[in-house]
Hints:
Oligomer: single chain
Distance between the termini: 41 Å
Radius of gyration: 25 Å
Amino acid sequence: MKPDAQKTWVYDFKMMNQITSDLSQEFTTLPFNDIELLHATLALSRIEQRATATLIAHLEEIDQRKAYALLSYPSLFEYVRKELGYAESSAYERIAAMRLVRQNEKAKAMIESGDLTLTGATQMQRFIKEEKSAGNAMNQEQQNELLTAIAGKSKRETERFLMAQATNPETPRLKESTRVATATHTEVKIFLDEGGMNLLNRARELVRADSTAALFTEALQLLIEKKERGLGKVETKTAAPEVDLKIPQSQIPPLAQKSRPAGKTPSVSRFIPLHFKRQIYARSQGQCEYISPATNSRCPSRAHLHVDHIRPLALGGRTELNNLRHLCQGHNLKASLDAGLLFANKTRSSRAR
């Protein structure tokens, strides 16, 4: 790794403190009487609403640029939860509000004015998604009518209103959930349709298990083993090969400079041989191999791994072991953005549809 890539990530706390001071400089001391206290608290509430709307706008831009990947976070949710310090429910609400604002300008103005809470925005975004799944994609006018109707409503009032507007209001919402039951056990709530129950009953006939939990544990173990074999995992006592995963950005030519002799077929292939997959897995151990140049930390994600070409095929890279690595979906997208193979504005417009 180059020396400049080993610099520790440090926030500019002086700048952050100045911004915070500018926002609250008028309210650094408690007011002298009740009327001043009420006015000051209302003013702080308005600041918080505007700050929330601005935060959502920043999250939207971070998501489009995949900037969270620079700090080795595999997703925006992990960045908001761990780097910004929000609880899971708070992180979920802010990201849901961001997705609503992405497709509806009215929602942005209502959040800033306080007419739409983050909880209401989350409910609205979930309703739009459910209606789309039911074959009733909502246009801007329909969304705006609902936003106007739920302005100022409580969580329960909003839920009742939206359920009354649903395409299939009689269909109960099946929400999966988990909760800590004991110090060693977690309760998992799922719903199975008729086909799923038939599979469960057949599994009970074939497998001797003490409980449904034991049956699911065995089934999950088999599924994981199958998927990891597909990624290239094998039982081996040989050490994983040492491969340099770093290719300086300066060595990756821009797309505009890419040229290829006319009529000549490139001697490259996207096919990844099985023995390559096995060696990559032995090296990565089923974990994203991205290392942040800002924090020198490795991405912890083990989900949705892609075999990525460090130097893209479109830029002259080849399908060779020292040009391949495991990346999670977030860092795979970030690598494409940085290489100029995917454009944030194109992603933004496609998601807004």
